[in-house]
Amino acid sequence: GAAMVARALWALLAALRAGWCLLPQSGYLHPDEFFQAPEVMAGDILNLQVYYPWEFLSSSPCRTVVFPLMTSGVTYWVIKSLQQLDICSSCINSYTLLVSPRLLFTIFSFILDYSVYQLAPFWGADPWKALVLLAGSYVTLVFYTRTFTNTLEGLLFALLMVLVSSRNSSGSSAEPTSSSLIGVITTAGFFNRPTFLAFALMPLLYWASLIVDSQKSIKTLINHFLKFILCACFTASVFITADTFYFTSVSLDNLYSTSKSSLIDVIVQLHDKMVVTPFNFLSYNLNPHNLALHGTHPRVTHFTVNGVMLFGILHILAIIAGFKMLKKYVHQLMLVRWCYRGPPGLLVHSEGSPTLLLFYFVPLAFLSLFSHQEPRFLIPLILPLVLFSASPNRAVKWKLLIVLFNLLGALLFGCLHQGGLIPCLFHLEQLIHSPASSSHPQHYTLLFAHTYMPPRSLLNIKKTDMHVEVIDMAGAAEETLCQTVEQRASNFTCSDCHVFIIIPGTVTATVTKCGVSFKNETLIFPHLSMEDPPQIPVLSSGNWRSQLGLYILELNR
């Protein structure tokens, strides 16, 4: 009966994951969910006006283009083809531009569910209990349905854990037979995000130990590692070649334009312009000055703040269990060293698997070495955490707290956090492409202030169209903001020019001091800006809706 209830609950949560993606989710987690794939591909494939982040400029290539092409690129190519074939006359719009890549990631997210179902028996966890914990987590509902490189990192980590965890018919650990696939996934993960090595370390050590323990022939042992290395090198060469063609002026036409070009000339030309994005990424991020530009945090932020923010009580329980296990290890070492008694091994009976805790805490420790620490960096750790938390001998005493925590997280990050910006872009896209605008060409200036970076691609403006100007003021000071607004107000050059200021309700008082007037005012609700949070006394008054909203203000002439 309990298993049937768990299956039904998982199915309901899985449907919620897919349905909420299509709705779509309005929360905006971080600019990287747009600017590490969809925005770039919208410019390259759909020829839309976009903002190319510095990582994708040929002068500083730090991100591989392979995964953006395989995800957002494929979905944009599909909707472009559908429109060109007249199967769908208006396939390309702000909704499809947002939802199509997210839908693909949502489908991919079920790799996590598959991995949990496969891994649970191996690690002594209850499969359906683990699946409900996974599917009910707001990390799965929100983060794993967004176009983050961290999402792909989590999926590759899950596949790696599946490949290294295998049992034979007797139920004992078996030697993994997929050395080639392990090499491919490890290298692909490294090119996606070099931090993948922190997650892959424990699975790879576990895999190596299984091979060493199960092999008596040196030849077979070498064969396993040789397969791993060869497949890793082949995968790396594919990524390097693709990135080199994308980021440099090298093209097949250039390479073979003259019959005089020999194979050696081609190889030399490619070598001279070779792009290895992970090394550029590491070179940039290992410089403390560069990391400081993106924000620095105490080294314990992942342990004390981000882990709790993402996983709640499960993270705290894992820390407690880890300390208990460490205490037992130390006690056993003392017995072995000073009393010469007790078991020779260090593996002691404890709640859950000690190895799973290492799979959780070792990556956490390595990521904590860097001073820039964001919560999304930890989302791949949900897999070992739910497996550890779902072991049969761990009674779930915190069901209500877990449910309330994930409801709050889903509401905050899936709906409220910068939640007005995407609907705002939908509204502006409809305004810009309205029949009135199409029949009488008009010029639009869109000035965004105190919001996250707006993804220009959602406005669906072709690169050849010059009638829309986007100005991102970020968190500009009052004086700078007013100066820009006043300048725009005094520079109306045509009767069909429109200037819109997009600003959170908590900052509208700043704009009203600028000495300009507005003729139209649109409020989009809800919108919560953590950079400009609403004041509690104001929220308790009748003005709370405006404080939790995003305003589109049209400047008067």
From TrEMBL:
Regions that span the bilayer: 91-112, 127-145, 152-170, 190-212, 224-247, 303-326, 346-371, 377-396, 403-428
Pathway: Glycolipid biosynthesis; glycosylphosphatidylinositol-anchor biosynthesis
EC number(s) on file: 2.4.1.-
Residues making up the signal peptide according to the UniProt record: 1-21
Lipid bilayer topology: Multi-pass membrane protein
GO CC field: endoplasmic reticulum membrane
Primary localization class, coarse: endoplasmic reticulum
Compartments, as annotated in UniProt: Endoplasmic reticulum membrane
Pfam families from the UniProt entry: Glyco_transf_22
Keywords for this protein: Endoplasmic reticulum, Glycosyltransferase, GPI-anchor biosynthesis, Membrane, Signal, Transferase, Transmembrane, Transmembrane helix
GO BP annotation list: GPI anchor biosynthetic process
Broad class of enzyme this protein falls into: transferase
GO molecular function: alpha-1,2-mannosyltransferase activity
Family: Belongs to the glycosyltransferase 22 family. PIGZ subfamily.
Protein name: Mannosyltransferase
Species of provenance: Sinosuthora webbiana
Taxonomic lineage of the native organism: Eukaryota, Metazoa, Chordata, Craniata, Vertebrata
